[in-house]
Amino acid sequence: MKINRPLSPHLTIYKPQLTSSLSIFHRITGAFLASMFLFTIFIIKVCDLSLSIYPIYWFVFELQPTNQFNWILFGLMLLVLLAFSYHMSNGIRHLTWDIGFGLDLSKVYLSGALAICSAALVASVTITCLIWFFR
Predict the structure, then answer these.
(1) Dist CA 82 CA 120 (whole Å)
(2) What span, in angstroms and rounded, lies between the C-alpha atoms of 8 and 113?
(3) 75 vs 111: CA distance, rounded Å
C-alpha cells in the first residue's frame, strides 16, 4: 500500500546560507585533515621501509625531482596548515554553541559573519603564517 507522505525538501531547493556554507566547509576541512593524517602515516611508513630496503630508498630519495617536488610539498603543507587553522577557528565557534552561547538566530548570523571575517579567514591566514614562520 502506498502512503502519501510529503517529501523532504532536497538540497537544490534551499538557497545557500552563510551558516550552512561555513558548516559544510568545516566538515570538508575535517575530512581533508583526516585524509592528510592517513597520508602522512603512509609516507612515514614508506620512509621507514626505505631505510631497510635499498630499491625503495633509491625510488623515494634519489629518483625524485628536486625543485618541482619540493614546490608541490610546500603548497600541500600550506594547504594543510590553512585547513587546520580554519577547522580549529570554526571549531571554537561550534564549541561556543555546545555550551549554549550564541544560539539566537541573530547571534548565529553575527558569529557566522565574524567567523568568516575574523576567525576563519584572518585567523587562518595568521595562524598559518605564524606556524610557518616559527617552524
Answers:
(1) 10
(2) 29
(3) 30
pLDDT digits (tens, 9 = 90+) for 65-114: 555 656 777 777 778 878 887 888 788 888 888 898 878 888 877 877 77
Place of cell 537544490: 12
C-alpha to C-alpha distances, 92 to 14, 27, 88, 105, 107, nearest whole angstrom: 26, 14, 6, 18, 15
Distance CA 50, CA 68 (A): 22
**Direct distance between the N- and C-terminal alpha carbons of the chain, in angstroms, rounded to an integer:** 65
Kindly list the domain boundaries of the chain, sorted by start residue.
29-64, 67-135
Mapping DSSP onto H, E and C, the string for 32-47 reads: HHHHHHHHHHHHHHHH
> In b/e form, how buried is each residue of 26-62, taking b as 16+ CB within 10 angstroms?
beebeeebeebeeeeeeeeeeeeebeeeeeeeeeeee
pLDDT score of 27: 92
pTM for this structure?
A: 0.66
Q: What is the pLDDT of residues 37-52, one digit of tens each?
A: 888 888 788 777 767 7
Look up residue 97 and give its DSSP letter. H
**To which residue does cell 630499491 refer?**
55
